[in-house]
Amino acid sequence: MFGGSLSVNPESDAAKQIWADLLGAEVVTYGVGGAGFAREQGYSLQRQVDEAEVFDVYVLWASTNDYMNGRECGTWQDYTVIDGYDVSRLSTQCGGINYCIRKLLEKNPSAEIYFFTSLRFFSRDSGCNPFSLEVNSTGKTFADYVQAQKDCCAYYGIPVLDQFSLQGINRFNVGLYYKEDLLHMTEEGYSRIGPVQAAFLAGGF
User: Which of 79, 104, 116, 140 is the right S-S partner for 95, CB 3.0 to 4.6 Å?
Assistant: First the structure.
């Protein structure tokens, strides 16, 4: 498992326990709070993947950090054969995603890779409204970042769990599942999304 704080916070153990119970899986977490896919975003997923051991299954869990910190979104073509694996594109979310996919398959070509999109956050309209016109400093909406995540995975045929759309949490029930910062989930939030994640992962276990 690679990601930002949502993948590693203590509350996330509630979801991981569901995976372990339903799938018989041992979960190893490399996630670091503040991380994003872009090379400059914290202890990035690129760095996490570089340090990973060889496993049968890898999960890339997208955070909100690239969007919130104004890292360029990029496109599905970033750091692919199309641009000659241009290392300058590792500074975009998409370049980072594509780097992680390539690196993991170099470690284990037979590994199964799964992708969790960013979850919603409720501290601003763009974080929870897919139709919001609110943009970050790069001129992109959060929905743009989520769509770009899915585009990168589509290019490589990586299965995607669209958590942004399937989480089932909205303005009417957010208080039951999110902390006061409206960004991080409580244990109840992970208990809600955990079975959805496990069902998704069950397709390949």
Answer: 79
Q: How far is CA 5 from CA 10, 30, 48, 98, in A?
A: 9, 11, 13, 21
Q: In angstroms, rounded to a whole number, what is the distance separating the alpha carbons of residues 4 and 42?
A: 9
pLDDT per residue as tens digits for the range 157-195: 999 999 999 999 999 999 999 999 999 999 999 999 999
Token code pair at residue 52: 């990973």
- Domains delineated in the chain: 5-200 (3.40.50.1110)
| DSSP track, 45-99 | HHHHHHH----SEEEEE--SHHHHTT-----TTTTSGGGT--GGGGGSHHHHHHH
Phi/psi at 10 (5° precision): -55, -35
Inter-residue contact 100 to 90 (CB < 8 Å): no
> Helices 93-107 and 142-156 sit at what angle, rounded to 10 degrees?
30
CA 44 to centroid of chain Cα atoms: 12
Rg of the chain over Cα atoms, rounded to whole angstroms, equals 16
37 with 62: CB under 8 angstroms? yes
Threshold 0.90, pTM exceeds: yes
